Every structure is written in C-alpha cells, then in structure tokens.
Amino acid sequence: MPESGQEKVFQPTPRKIEKAREEGNVPKSIDLGSAVVLIAGIMALIALGPAMADQMKWAFYAIYGDLLNVNLTPDTFPGYFRLGSFYLIKLLAPFSIALVVLALAIHIFMSGWLFSGKAIQPKLNRIDPIKGLKRIFSIKGFVELVKGIMKVVIVGVIAYFTIKAEIPSFTPMMDESVVAIVGGIMAVAVKLALRLALAILILGILDWKFQKWKYTQDLKMTKQEMIDERKMTEGDPRLKSHIRRVQYRISFNRMVKQLPEADVVVSNPVHVAVALKYDSDKMSAPVVIAKGRRKLAERIKSIAREHDIPIVEDPPLARALYKACEIGWEIPYELFQAVAEVLAMVYRLKEAV
What we know:
Blueprint: H1 14-22, H2 30-64, H3 77-111, H4 129-136, H5 139-173, H6 178-219, H7 223-234, H8 237-258, E1 264-267, E2 272-277, E3 287-293, H9 295-306, E4 311-313, H10 315-324, H11 336-352
Parallel strand pairs: 1-4
Antiparallel strand pairs: 1-2, 2-3
Helix pairs in contact: 2-3, 2-6, 5-6
C-alpha cells in the first residue's frame, strides 16, 4: 500500500503510462527476447551451417593452405591474420546483423519505439541497502528467484533425457572418422539447444504476461493521485467552476443586452424559452439570441414582457430550437417552416396594432 494509506485501485491513465515510458519504465521480458533470438540463431545454423562451414573451410584453405611454404615472420603474420579475419567477418556479418535486427524487433514488439537515457542514469536509491532488500524480497524478486530455479531444473532435465536418449548412438561413433564424430556431437548439441530454447520460449511467454500484469499493478493509482493528475491536466475543479460562473455571468449579461432586439420568444409555458431575431436584409435565416430553461426561461420572458416582445407558446418548436441551436446560431433548415409561420403571425399582429 502507498504511504498515504490509500489503495491503488484505479487503472493508470495514459499520461502516467507515457511518463513511465519517458523514464524508461516499460514491460519487458529478457527471457522471451533471448529465447526468440536463440531459436532463430539455431534454425539459421541448421539451414546455413553446412554452407557456412564449407565457405569457412575453403577460405582458410586458400589463406593458410600453403602456410608451410610461407616465410611466416612477425612482419608477415599480421597480414595473414587480417586477411583471415576479413573472410570470417564477411562470413558471419549477415548472420550477426540478422540476429541484432531480430532482437531489436522483439524489443519494439514488447515496448514499442522507445529511447530513454533516464533508465541508465545513476541514482542513489539504487545503492540504498534498505530499498535493495525490499526489491529482493518483493513479488518481483520472488518471481525472479522462481524463474532462476525453473531454468536450472529445466536445463538439467532436458539435458539429462536428451543425452540419455543419444547414448546408444555414441558407441558406433568410435569407429568413425574425426569429422563424423564431430558432426554427430554437433547434431546432438543442436538438438539439445533447440529443445532448451523452446522450453525457455514457453517460460519467456509466461514471464512476458507476468511482466505486463506487474507493470499495470505498479502503475495503478490511488484516488488522491487521480485527483492530483486531473488537476494537472484539466486544472483545479474549483478554479474551473469559478471560471464557468464568470463565463456564465458574461454570457448572461450579453444575452440580456441583446434580448430587447428579439422579434419573438418561443416558449414552453414553464421549462424552455428561446428568443429569435430576423433581419431579412442582413440575415439568411433567423438567429437565436437568447435561450434558457426554468428560472432563466422565466427571466427571458420577463424581459420580453418589459420590452413588448411577443411570446408565442409552442412547446414542440421551443424544445426543438433549444436542442438544435446555441446562442448566435442560425436556426436549422428543418425548422424554417415552423419559425416562418410564427414570425408571420407576429408581423400580422404588429401590423394590426
């Protein structure tokens, strides 16, 4: 539990996750990445191993085949060594680069695109013995201990049964050539390595799922943390409430000043009132200059009576205008006919007077 005494029960927000990523804190499983790279390397060796061995053999033969007839001196040896190293690097470079690219792809799969130097920056709390003991005896430390034990057990069991199954084939090898013996041992080694890699892959997948779960648990937030983050991202609720009140007063005062210019107020007898203005020379459609519900609706109608603005009770039209329009908006096309009938009635009444 956190120091505040509150439980972390809320899922981490995108902002907290992004902040953790900036710190280099992302879910990852070293075992999963190692297993994938190991399996890929073994499969590549199985597929390309014979060809690579032949190329290496011919390269060394071409370089060192006539070594007895070469005047090998301290001056000439570096040249032969550099030539041999060049062929070796040329042979292994594509294989090595492919494994590096695969390792990067696995990292991107687990953590996404991320580059942060903060994760490797020295921190004093990392050498704090008290915090070190807490990390050792934490859930993560216990899981790492279990993983280590499981690895040792898995390696021992797989190695034992694999070698035991191959023992009968070792005896006939004694009559084979050195090349055949080495080939047989290599075949057993590859089989053993592939089985171990598959076992570690399964362990890595389980570890990856645990790391994702543990990552989410560690980033969970308390109620106070949620409130603090909301203040940082959205502002203090009390300040926002004050701003809304100020904005409401400004909007209300502007609306009150414009109300005397209205041509008509369409109302629901109690709940809604909408004031409309229309100037055929300047406007393409009537405009809503004020609207309100309940007490504000009563206030709008009171001001309308003070300025002899007609009030037309039409509940369906009043509700439709209130829902469809904001102050300053033109009425929508589908309400043209209904509003036109109201304005026509108002103009007839004014002419009659």
